[in-house]
């Protein structure tokens, strides 16, 4: 089992960052058929073989993805996609 953990600082404020995290999650849900749900300032997502969360604070967004055994070889690609998405949505 592999874990991808990426944190990005931002200057958007918590509410704007949450809105952008939601947009990112909407894309994720559509692309990966993942189920997403907010619990306070943390958005959790789950699909077969992977689950994780997007944690939003006043000045940071942290994405943690836990990959199951079958998806572990794709950890590098998943990390790259998460970094690209964070760069795009937090710009």
TrEMBL record:
Instruction: Write out the ranges of the annotated region (Disordered).
Output: 1-20
Classification via InterPro entries: PHA_gran_rgn (IPR013433)
> Which Pfam family, just one, is annotated for this protein?
PHA_gran_rgn
Q: NCBIfam families from the entry?
A: PHA_gran_rgn
- The protein depicted here goes by the name Polyhydroxyalkanoic acid system protein
Q: Which organism is it from?
A: marine sediment metagenome
């Amino acid at each position: 089992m592999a874990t991808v953990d990426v944190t990005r600082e931002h200057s958007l404020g918590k509410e704007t960052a949450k809105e952008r995290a939601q947009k990112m999650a909407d894309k994720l849900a559509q692309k990966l058929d993942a189920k997403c749900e907010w619990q306070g300032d943390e958005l959790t997502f789950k699909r077969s073989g992977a689950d994780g969360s997007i944690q939003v604070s006043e000045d940071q967004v942290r994405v943690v993805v836990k990959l199951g055994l079958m998806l572990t070889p794709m950890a590098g690609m998943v990390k790259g996609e998460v970094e690209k998405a964070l760069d795009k949505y937090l710009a």
